[in-house]
Write a structure and sequence with these properties.
Blueprint: H1 17-20, E1 30-31, H2 35-40, H3 45-48, E2 54-55, H4 59-65, H5 70-76, H6 82-91, H7 98-102, H8 106-134
Antiparallel strand pairs: 1-2
Length: 135
């Protein structure tokens, strides 16, 4: 996911992956569907912490989004300009499914993001294999 040069969900700025992965930010990994929201909905710990529910975000943006559910922050915090929004979604491997976020459909989101992460991993694997084979 870091290889995709993710952009900040709140402003489209490129995220410094070194900072995002630092020990200082260890508790700042952004849960796209917040833990508190999913706990209230009855989801289990392992479902809440699936890789598909995590993305890189700077500490300040993570705090700005806080524990807002996607139906709130996708509509109010993520830039609405189509090209910027599309770029933010693409660089974070987020499915562009406005209705899913508006209705807080976690499993639907998780399935779609799982496919995007899988496809990105397979593409990267193919690139590495080509580099090794063509070297």
């Amino acid at each position: 996911m870091a290889d995709n040069h993710p952009q900040d969900l709140t402003n489209g700025a490129r995220i410094n992956i070194g900072d995002a992965l630092s020990c200082f930010n260890a508790k700042e990994y952004h849960h796209i569907f917040p833990r508190s929201f999913l706990v209230k909905k009855g989801f289990k710990f392992d479902e809440i912490n699936w890789l598909v529910n995590i993305c890189f975000q700077p500490s300040a943006s993570n705090k700005k989004i806080s524990n807002k559910q996607p139906s709130e922050y996708f509509a109010g915090v993520i830039p609405k300009e189509i090209e910027m929004k599309s770029s933010i979604f693409a660089t974070n491997l987020l499915p562009n499914m406005d209705d899913t976020y508006a209705r807080d459909l976690y499993y639907e989101f998780a399935d779609a993001r799982d496919r995007l992460i899988y496809e990105a991993a397979m593409q990267k694997t193919d690139e590495v294999a080509e580099d090794i084979g063509g070297g």
